[in-house]
Design a protein that fits this description.
The chain has 121 residues and is an all-alpha fold. It has one domain. Helices cover 86% and strands 0% of the residues. α1 packs antiparallel against α3, α1 crosses α5 and α3 packs antiparallel against α4. The N and C termini lie close together (8 Å). The mean pLDDT is 94.
Length: 121
């Protein structure tokens, strides 16, 4: 049960890091500028490091760093893909890609929790 609560805490931290703290500049430029993507992923990773350290101690920092790298790779692809649809004003498919992006992030959190901590949420 503890891991379920930890997973829910990571989902909440993910929401804060991926949406609440993402600036307008990061959101509008991460699909075309690697510095904007890097700034977004840096703030994301810091939030996840705080959450991970609080829940799992220093070992949690490796979990957060791994998720930062995977978050960068996911957003590198999905931000460009959704930007393509937004440019065409194809709102449905743009939001389908954003939903897929979130699914991948959530699956990544679950998989890395299992790999790092040996527990299924």
């Amino acid at each position: 049960m503890r891991m379920l609560w930890a997973f829910l805490a990571f989902l909440a931290a993910h929401w804060i890091a991926d949406f609440v703290l993402q600036t307008h500049w990061q959101a509008t430029n991460k699909s075309k500028r690697v510095d904007a993507l890097a700034a977004h992923v840096t703030s994301y990773t810091v939030v996840m490091m705080v959450a991970s350290a609080a829940l799992f101690g220093p070992f949690g920092l490796l979990f957060a760093a791994a998720n930062g790298v995977l978050h960068f790779a996911t957003d590198y692809v999905t931000s460009r893909w959704s930007a393509h649809f937004f440019a065409k004003q194809d709102w449905h498919n743009a939001f389908v890609v954003i939903g897929l992006d979130q699914l991948v992030h959530q699956a990544t959190l679950a998989a890395t929790m299992w790999l790092f901590f040996g527990a299924r949420p």
